[in-house]
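tool_log.txt
---
The assistant was asked to compare two proteins side by side. It first ran the structure predictor on the initial sequence, then on the second. Raw inputs and outputs are pasted verbatim so the downstream comparison step can read them without reformatting.
(1)
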Amino acid sequence: MSHTAHIPSHRKPRQRASTTALRAGVAGGVLSTIAVAGAAGPAQAEPVTQTIEMPTITEGLSTAVAASAQATQQVAHDLETQAQQDAAAAKAAKTAKKAKAEAVRKAEAEKKAEAAAKAKAEAEAEAAERASRTAERTTLSASSGSSGSSGSSASASTTSYSSSATGSAASVVAFAKAQVGDAYVSGGTGPNSWDCSGLVQAAFRSVGVDLPRVSQSQSTAGTQVSLSNLQPGDILYWGGAGSAYHVAVYVGGGQFVGAQNSGTGVVQASLDYDPPSGAVRVL
């Protein structure tokens, strides 16, 4: 055995043939690729750059969006306007309803006030009439006796008085005489109880003449006539013209029929029994 047989060798072990071949193939392929690329490089044309203009859609889109926004805004405006109109209409209706109710209330109040004033005026007139007769006509029989005793003297001394009535005047006289004996009630308008102006008004209404309701107005409802020239159907009044407190109907022969007071009721009496202040002729 050689003396060098056990000395390890410092050589690198030989690579496998297959690995070496693979590496050589890869290196060769790379070099070939580079060579080909280098050879072909100068012969290629420069790349062509072409700009393709894409359709612009943003302008149409913005117009559509703007139109949609405007339409939405218009709808909102219309809704707001309609709401305001509805609110205004509701407010106007409420105001009109309130005004109507207030007008009705005022009308009723005025009507009540007018009725109260009228009733007060009538009551005052009747009170004045009763006060002026406190010493007279205590009973119907007493007034009838007084009327009988004074009636003849009145007929003898006042020959200008007419004792016969015709036409509408006759109807007024007949109506008044038919109520003699009825009760006197303040504010009474018949058919069985009367106050003085209520009786006179009803007598003339029977012939289609509409007189005012109260004595004051009835005393100026016609033409003023002299007490010395009376005719049946004339209205007699006591007090001043326009401020009378009592009225009656002249029935001819120096007699009148009137609703005097609660003590006598409706009576027929002589003018001398209770001389009137004046007279008016309606018929």
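(2)
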Amino acid sequence: MKRILKRYICSLMVLPAVLATQSCTKNFDTLNIDPNASTTPTPALIFTKAQYDGTANMANLLLGTMQYTTSYNDVAGFGSKYILAQAQASAGVFSTAYTNEINELVEVLKAVGDAPDKVNLKAEARIWRVYCFSRLTDLYGDIPYSQAAQGYNQSIYKPAYDAQKDIYADLLKELDQAAQSLDAAKATFGSADLIYGGNTAKWKKFAYSLMLRCAMRMTKVDIAQAQTWATKAIAGGVIMDDADIAKVAYVGAGQNININPLALNLWNSDYIAVNGSSNIEGGKYQDVFINYLKANKDPRLGVVSIVYNGGNADTTSAIQKGMPATFNAKPADFVTYSEPNPKTVLLFASPRLVYTAAESYFLLAEASLRGWYSASSAQSLYENGVTAALRQWSIIAGSAGTISTAQINSYMNAHAFNNSGTTEQKLEQIYTQFWVGLFPDAQETFANYRRTGYPALTPNNYPGNATGGKIFRRMLYPISEQNLNPESYNAAVARQGPDEFLTRMWWDKQ
């Protein structure tokens, strides 16, 4: 045994020398270069990826919070039940954003720089960066912004959190400058731009539409600035036609990146069995959403919802039924509850709508009520918003989503604008239609719900919830921030308030 050990130890002593001899070759530089890597970034390719990532990074749990969906499974049902044990499920968007779309956009902007011939590339990257950051701050409040994703470039590994008030001021400034710098005579990202194919006129409308969204977000915290920026956005020109809707198209096959991310997530997490019974996470539509659609004879019911009847997907309105968010076990009649339609909501090849004409019209209706927009009445803007929201399902799903003109007119007649109501009653009508009209963009309806209080949802006081039976106001930061970036995290908490679900961010005031 001693002789064996002696030989083994000697061989270990010799091995490094042998390896060193073998590794030292005259082709050292060539052998240590990855032939598939580039030392020069290609902005167009990175921008494409940033668009995919920014569109895919959604807080899908908010579908439950906005009472569109629910689950009898406590883990999957966090969004509709606010289970304390699943609180960190809310941190996912934060963690994903900085390693993907935020980091990618920093690299795009660094690569294009201030070159005069790349002014459109810079502008479009700035506008998309505003979209990504605005969605992020609207979920968490104060977040890393001015120092974000600068570890590689500036060795900032513990970025400070910016106050949301300051973030919003810079987002609006970025949109203003980017929109004005767009130049139709200069180069664009072309086909690498998944949203508009480089069309600068449409990018300008998108920029001013995001400006309108951000401006209206500030109505309860800084009404003067809200009016200033909303007026500027309206003057610049916002999205009001279906042809200008900001959307990312998907081919629906091949790698996952080519599939509508919401459809793919819902499909894989719940509905892949296609039988209404073997739903992996126990998900169904929530009764609040389905009851609303049925009570209002909404033609979207048969577009978005099905019940598996004898193994077949049935869109008949009479049999649609939403599941309560109070269930903690699979009900015996689980198969009889409604779930997303595979031909529309779960369609892999459907586009992901980023900003719609319907949203613009609803926000403009409020602006009209406030006296900030005089070109159209609140009534006509409301009507345009409702009809645009009904039409857009044909954009999402083609013939399977098409709602006829007769159906649209019938629905509109039954939901005429309440001209004789108070301003508050009018706002409730506008933003209840906003809630049903922007589905399935739960993240935007969540933000608007916190600002306006509409629709008037009843919270779910489920046993073991983290909020005392209240709908939460923000998401929680990742635990990793407490461990890896404690100084910045603690400074943000000291300024904004406890890292808790009910802490209100800057624009979310009573």
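---
observation on (2): The chain has 21 helices and nine strands. The first strand starts at residue 69 and ends at 71.
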